[in-house]
Amino acid sequence: MDNLTSSDQTPSPLNIIFSCHVCQASISEIYDAGASSSDFHDGRPDTGDRRVTSLWLTECMHLVCGKHLEGGGAPFHPEGKRPEAPCPVCVLESKDVRPRRLFAVRGWKEGSYDDAIPAQLFLTPPIKLDGPGPEMEALQFQYLSLVRYGISQAKSQQQLVHAKREAESRAAEAAVGHKKLKQENQDLKAKIAELEKGQVDVVKWKQRMPQITHYLTMWPELIA
Predict the structure, then answer these.
(1) What is the DSSP letter of 81?
(2) Exposed/middle/buried for residue 10 (C-beta within 10 Å: 0-12, 13-18, 19+)
(3) Which listed residue, 21, 105, 148, 192, has the most CB atoms within 10 A of its CB?
(4) H or E element: which one contains 105?
(5) What confidence tens digit (pLDDT) does each residue in 150-187 have?
(6) What is the reported pTM?
(7) How remote is the C-alpha of 104 from its chain's centroid?
(8) Among candidates 1, 6, 122, which has minimal Cα distance to 51?
(9) With contact defined as beta carbons under 8 Å apart, do 158 and 149 qualify?
(10) Distances from the Cα of 6 to the Cαs of 1, 2, 13, 110, 125, in angstroms?
(11) How much is the pLDDT for 35?
Protein backbone atom coordinates (compact mmCIF):
# COMPACT_ATOMS: atom_id res chain seq x y z
CA MET A 1 0.00 0.00 0.00
CA ASP A 2 1.33 3.45 -0.82
CA ASN A 3 2.36 5.75 1.97
CA LEU A 4 -0.04 8.52 1.05
CA THR A 5 1.41 11.09 3.43
CA SER A 6 4.99 11.99 4.22
CA SER A 7 6.65 10.88 7.45
CA ASP A 8 6.41 14.30 9.10
CA GLN A 9 2.68 14.52 8.30
CA THR A 10 3.36 17.26 5.74
CA PRO A 11 1.04 16.60 2.79
CA SER A 12 2.77 15.23 -0.29
CA PRO A 13 2.30 17.25 -3.51
CA LEU A 14 0.73 14.14 -5.06
CA ASN A 15 -1.73 13.93 -2.18
CA ILE A 16 -2.90 17.41 -3.16
CA ILE A 17 -2.82 16.84 -6.92
CA PHE A 18 -4.77 13.58 -6.60
CA SER A 19 -7.82 15.09 -4.94
CA CYS A 20 -11.40 14.59 -6.00
CA HIS A 21 -12.47 17.29 -8.47
CA VAL A 22 -15.95 17.34 -6.93
CA CYS A 23 -15.43 17.39 -3.15
CA GLN A 24 -11.64 18.02 -3.00
CA ALA A 25 -11.05 15.05 -0.69
CA SER A 26 -7.41 13.97 -1.03
CA ILE A 27 -6.45 10.43 -1.97
CA SER A 28 -5.24 9.75 1.59
CA GLU A 29 -8.53 11.00 3.07
CA ILE A 30 -10.53 8.89 0.63
CA TYR A 31 -8.71 5.65 1.42
CA ASP A 32 -8.24 6.35 5.14
CA ALA A 33 -12.01 6.74 5.39
CA GLY A 34 -13.13 3.88 3.20
CA ALA A 35 -10.32 1.40 2.61
CA SER A 36 -10.89 -2.19 3.63
CA SER A 37 -10.01 -5.67 2.50
CA SER A 38 -12.42 -7.00 -0.08
CA ASP A 39 -12.84 -9.68 -2.70
CA PHE A 40 -14.20 -7.11 -5.16
CA HIS A 41 -11.82 -7.18 -8.15
CA ASP A 42 -12.67 -3.86 -9.87
CA GLY A 43 -12.01 -5.63 -13.19
CA ARG A 44 -8.24 -5.47 -12.61
CA PRO A 45 -5.64 -8.27 -12.55
CA ASP A 46 -5.37 -10.26 -9.34
CA THR A 47 -2.71 -8.60 -7.15
CA GLY A 48 -2.02 -8.35 -3.44
CA ASP A 49 -3.80 -5.00 -3.31
CA ARG A 50 -7.41 -5.88 -2.50
CA ARG A 51 -8.59 -2.38 -1.60
CA VAL A 52 -11.88 -1.44 -3.21
CA THR A 53 -11.25 1.36 -5.69
CA SER A 54 -12.74 4.58 -4.34
CA LEU A 55 -11.02 7.10 -6.64
CA TRP A 56 -11.32 7.08 -10.42
CA LEU A 57 -9.63 8.98 -13.25
CA THR A 58 -12.18 9.51 -15.99
CA GLU A 59 -11.47 9.26 -19.69
CA CYS A 60 -11.85 13.06 -19.79
CA MET A 61 -9.09 13.45 -17.18
CA HIS A 62 -11.17 14.25 -14.12
CA LEU A 63 -10.57 12.65 -10.72
CA VAL A 64 -13.73 11.70 -8.84
CA CYS A 65 -14.65 9.72 -5.75
CA GLY A 66 -16.73 6.66 -6.50
CA LYS A 67 -19.56 8.05 -4.38
CA HIS A 68 -20.09 10.88 -6.90
CA LEU A 69 -20.68 8.46 -9.76
CA GLU A 70 -24.24 7.69 -10.83
CA GLY A 71 -25.58 5.05 -8.47
CA GLY A 72 -22.97 5.87 -5.81
CA GLY A 73 -20.14 3.81 -7.31
CA ALA A 74 -18.59 2.35 -10.42
CA PRO A 75 -21.05 0.09 -12.27
CA PHE A 76 -20.45 -3.65 -12.51
CA HIS A 77 -18.38 -4.59 -15.52
CA PRO A 78 -16.81 -7.71 -17.04
CA GLU A 79 -13.44 -8.70 -15.62
CA GLY A 80 -10.64 -7.23 -17.70
CA LYS A 81 -12.80 -4.34 -18.91
CA ARG A 82 -13.04 -0.88 -17.44
CA PRO A 83 -16.32 0.43 -16.03
CA GLU A 84 -18.08 3.29 -17.78
CA ALA A 85 -20.21 6.06 -16.30
CA PRO A 86 -21.01 9.72 -16.94
CA CYS A 87 -18.31 12.00 -15.51
CA PRO A 88 -19.79 13.95 -12.55
CA VAL A 89 -17.60 16.98 -13.36
CA CYS A 90 -18.72 17.07 -17.01
CA VAL A 91 -22.34 16.61 -15.97
CA LEU A 92 -22.05 19.48 -13.52
CA GLU A 93 -20.10 21.86 -15.75
CA SER A 94 -21.44 21.14 -19.25
CA LYS A 95 -24.44 18.80 -18.83
CA ASP A 96 -22.46 16.13 -20.70
CA VAL A 97 -23.91 12.76 -19.70
CA ARG A 98 -21.98 10.57 -22.13
CA PRO A 99 -20.48 7.46 -20.50
CA ARG A 100 -16.72 7.71 -19.93
CA ARG A 101 -14.26 4.96 -19.20
CA LEU A 102 -13.04 4.92 -15.60
CA PHE A 103 -9.47 4.14 -14.58
CA ALA A 104 -8.75 2.97 -11.04
CA VAL A 105 -6.47 5.01 -8.76
CA ARG A 106 -5.59 3.52 -5.35
CA GLY A 107 -2.20 5.19 -4.92
CA TRP A 108 0.66 6.61 -6.94
CA LYS A 109 3.14 3.74 -6.94
CA GLU A 110 3.31 1.41 -9.92
CA GLY A 111 0.67 -1.29 -9.53
CA SER A 112 -1.59 0.98 -7.45
CA TYR A 113 -3.21 2.56 -10.48
CA ASP A 114 -4.56 1.39 -13.83
CA ASP A 115 -1.65 0.60 -16.14
CA ALA A 116 -3.35 2.61 -18.90
CA ILE A 117 -2.70 5.81 -16.91
CA PRO A 118 0.57 7.45 -18.00
CA ALA A 119 3.21 7.21 -15.27
CA GLN A 120 4.06 10.87 -15.90
CA LEU A 121 0.88 11.85 -14.06
CA PHE A 122 2.52 10.61 -10.86
CA LEU A 123 5.79 12.53 -11.28
CA THR A 124 6.19 15.94 -9.66
CA PRO A 125 7.00 17.77 -11.80
CA PRO A 126 6.29 15.60 -14.87
CA ILE A 127 9.18 17.28 -16.73
CA LYS A 128 12.46 18.75 -15.53
CA LEU A 129 12.25 22.43 -14.72
CA ASP A 130 15.98 23.13 -14.86
CA GLY A 131 16.21 24.13 -18.52
CA PRO A 132 17.49 27.54 -19.62
CA GLY A 133 15.37 30.50 -20.63
CA PRO A 134 12.88 32.85 -18.95
CA GLU A 135 9.91 30.68 -19.95
CA MET A 136 11.27 27.68 -18.06
CA GLU A 137 12.13 29.88 -15.08
CA ALA A 138 8.58 31.24 -15.11
CA LEU A 139 7.15 27.72 -15.30
CA GLN A 140 9.36 26.61 -12.40
CA PHE A 141 8.36 29.65 -10.35
CA GLN A 142 4.63 29.17 -10.99
CA TYR A 143 4.72 25.41 -10.43
CA LEU A 144 6.65 25.63 -7.16
CA SER A 145 4.46 28.50 -5.95
CA LEU A 146 1.34 26.42 -6.56
CA VAL A 147 2.88 23.41 -4.82
CA ARG A 148 3.91 25.47 -1.78
CA TYR A 149 0.48 27.09 -1.60
CA GLY A 150 -1.28 23.74 -1.92
CA ILE A 151 0.88 22.14 0.77
CA SER A 152 0.34 25.11 3.09
CA GLN A 153 -3.44 24.98 2.59
CA ALA A 154 -3.55 21.22 3.06
CA LYS A 155 -1.48 21.48 6.24
CA SER A 156 -3.81 24.19 7.57
CA GLN A 157 -6.77 21.97 6.77
CA GLN A 158 -5.14 19.06 8.62
CA GLN A 159 -4.69 21.29 11.66
CA LEU A 160 -8.32 22.40 11.46
CA VAL A 161 -9.50 18.80 11.19
CA HIS A 162 -7.34 17.88 14.20
CA ALA A 163 -8.70 20.84 16.18
CA LYS A 164 -12.26 19.88 15.19
CA ARG A 165 -11.74 16.31 16.38
CA GLU A 166 -10.30 17.55 19.69
CA ALA A 167 -13.23 19.95 20.12
CA GLU A 168 -15.70 17.15 19.37
CA SER A 169 -13.93 14.92 21.89
CA ARG A 170 -14.07 17.62 24.57
CA ALA A 171 -17.73 18.28 23.73
CA ALA A 172 -18.50 14.57 24.10
CA GLU A 173 -16.73 14.49 27.48
CA ALA A 174 -18.62 17.62 28.55
CA ALA A 175 -21.91 16.02 27.47
CA VAL A 176 -21.14 12.96 29.60
CA GLY A 177 -20.27 15.22 32.55
CA HIS A 178 -23.44 17.24 32.03
CA LYS A 179 -25.54 14.08 31.97
CA LYS A 180 -23.89 12.90 35.19
CA LEU A 181 -24.47 16.26 36.90
CA LYS A 182 -28.08 16.28 35.70
CA GLN A 183 -28.62 12.82 37.21
CA GLU A 184 -26.98 13.91 40.48
CA ASN A 185 -29.20 17.00 40.53
CA GLN A 186 -32.30 14.85 40.04
CA ASP A 187 -31.16 12.51 42.83
CA LEU A 188 -30.62 15.47 45.17
CA LYS A 189 -34.05 16.85 44.35
CA ALA A 190 -35.58 13.47 45.14
CA LYS A 191 -33.74 13.35 48.49
CA ILE A 192 -34.82 16.91 49.31
CA ALA A 193 -38.42 15.97 48.49
CA GLU A 194 -38.15 12.99 50.87
CA LEU A 195 -36.66 15.17 53.59
CA GLU A 196 -39.36 17.80 53.12
CA LYS A 197 -42.01 15.09 53.37
CA GLY A 198 -40.39 13.87 56.56
CA GLN A 199 -40.29 17.43 57.88
CA VAL A 200 -44.03 17.78 57.24
CA ASP A 201 -44.68 14.55 59.14
CA VAL A 202 -42.60 15.79 62.09
CA VAL A 203 -44.49 19.10 62.15
CA LYS A 204 -47.79 17.22 62.15
CA TRP A 205 -46.67 15.07 65.07
CA LYS A 206 -45.49 18.15 66.98
CA GLN A 207 -48.88 19.77 66.39
CA ARG A 208 -50.60 16.67 67.82
CA MET A 209 -48.27 16.36 70.82
CA PRO A 210 -50.47 18.41 73.24
CA GLN A 211 -53.45 16.21 72.44
CA ILE A 212 -51.37 13.05 72.82
CA THR A 213 -49.91 14.31 76.11
CA HIS A 214 -53.39 15.12 77.37
CA TYR A 215 -54.63 11.60 76.63
CA LEU A 216 -51.54 10.09 78.24
CA THR A 217 -52.11 12.07 81.44
CA MET A 218 -55.68 10.84 81.54
CA TRP A 219 -54.67 7.20 81.10
CA PRO A 220 -53.83 6.49 84.80
CA GLU A 221 -57.20 7.91 85.87
CA LEU A 222 -58.98 5.64 83.45
CA ILE A 223 -57.11 2.59 84.80
CA ALA A 224 -57.93 3.53 88.37
Answers:
(1) S
(2) middle
(3) 105
(4) strand 99-105
(5) 888 888 888 888 899 899 999 999 888 889 888 988 88
(6) 0.60
(7) 22
(8) 1
(9) no
(10) 14, 11, 10, 18, 17
(11) 44
